[in-house]
């Protein structure tokens, strides 16, 4: 059934529906493994009881480096099961026993945060590492064998034997947006040359101004980031302001991407606004003709940290 509309808002999310399954060389992928291999999406879809039964009494390997991998590792460890997680540099060096476990990051904490490569650890995560119920292995590559996985090239580490491997390797949100469109021309337009969706203010595609994407931006507070974009979109649809020209919007996207790449050690993603959410919020406020300085008093605005509460009642100003 076809509906004719003047504007489309996509609120489909980036973290579902299109799992990011790593590519493996021939005879080194999941097909050679005699156990079970699932993506974290399939694992979470099982529900608490079925998921607990799925890993009960089994040797579990979690492949990943971010929030989902860490949460699943902690969950598996609760029942005295093994969880082995391939971790990357992501947390404060001085606060956690990273050196002891070979987990010292290559990038600075600021660069990690700027590239959205940090996450909150579950309670007592490193306590479980110390007791041995979680074993951390850091490696840039893995491959499968019949009995488990091989860390790196296999020369320095023995085979990690497993019954279950959970791929907590994220999602391909840009591909998910692209594949909504049947037309190859529109698919090419939505992603651009880099296969990453270039969105003005992380909302509007410069060459498809009748299409908005909500929930694309990543931040230290993603709910707050999404809310201010919804408010901005409402004001735009109400005719309170106009979009710049296509060329200016595309230039803004390029400038923003260059800025993020410079401050994140080259690891940034277009959707990640992270450390720069205040500056980003200032842009939204100025677009809507609102005061970007939200504190009462010059000194408060200069020295006190900004958070979601500072933007409460934004459109009521």
From TrEMBL:
InterPro entries for this protein: FAD/NAD-bd_sf, Flavin_mOase, Flavin_mOase-like, FMO-like
Listed Gene3D superfamilies: FAD/NAD(P)-binding domain
Keyword annotations of the record: FAD, Flavoprotein, NADP, Oxidoreductase
A Pfam family matched in the record: FMO-like
The keyword Transmembrane helix belongs to this UniProt entry's keyword annotation: no
Presence of keyword Flavoprotein: yes
Highest rank taxon of the organism: Eukaryota
Molecular-function GO terms, alphabetical: flavin adenine dinucleotide binding; N,N-dimethylaniline monooxygenase activity; NADP binding
Family matches, as PANTHER family: DIMETHYLANILINE MONOOXYGENASE
Family: Belongs to the FMO family.
Full protein name: Flavin-containing monooxygenase
Species name: Linum tenue
């Amino acid at each position: 059934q076809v509906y004719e509309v003047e504007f489309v808002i996509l609120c489909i999310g980036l973290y579902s529906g299109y799992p990011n399954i790593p590519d493996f060389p021939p005879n080194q992928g999941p097909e050679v493994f005699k156990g079970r291999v699932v993506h974290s999406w399939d694992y979470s879809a099982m529900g608490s009881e079925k998921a607990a039964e799925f890993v009960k009494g089994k040797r579990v390997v979690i492949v990943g480096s971010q929030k989902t991998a860490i949460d699943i590792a902690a969950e598996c460890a609760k029942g005295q099961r093994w969880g082995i997680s391939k971790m990357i540099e992501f947390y404060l060096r001085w606060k956690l026993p990273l050196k002891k476990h070979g987990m010292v990051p290559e990038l600075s904490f600021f660069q990690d945060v700027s590239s959205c490569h940090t996450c909150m650890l579950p309670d007592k995560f490193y306590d479980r590492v110390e007791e041995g119920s979680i074993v951390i292995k850091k490696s840039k590559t893995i491959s499968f064998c019949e009995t488990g996985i091989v860390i790196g090239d296999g020369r320095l580490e023995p085979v990690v034997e497993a019954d279950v491997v959970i791929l907590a390797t994220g999602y391909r949100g840009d591909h998910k947006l692209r594949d909504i469109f049947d037309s190859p021309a529109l698919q090419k337009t939505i992603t651009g040359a880099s296969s990453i969706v270039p969105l003005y203010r992380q909302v509007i595609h410069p060459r498809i101004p009748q299409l908005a994407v909500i929930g694309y931006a990543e931040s230290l507070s993603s709910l707050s980031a999404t809310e201010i974009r919804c408010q901005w979109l409402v004001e735009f649809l109400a005719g309170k302001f106009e979009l710049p020209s296509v060329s200016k919007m595309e230039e803004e996207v390029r400038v923003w991407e260059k800025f993020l790449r410079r401050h994140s050690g080259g690891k940034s993603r277009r959707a990640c606004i992270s450390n720069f959410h205040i500056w980003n919020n200032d842009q939204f406020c100025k677009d809507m003709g609102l005061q970007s300085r939200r504190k009462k008093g010059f000194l408060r605005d200069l020295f006190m940290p900004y958070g979601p509460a500072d933007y409460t009642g934004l459109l009521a100003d």
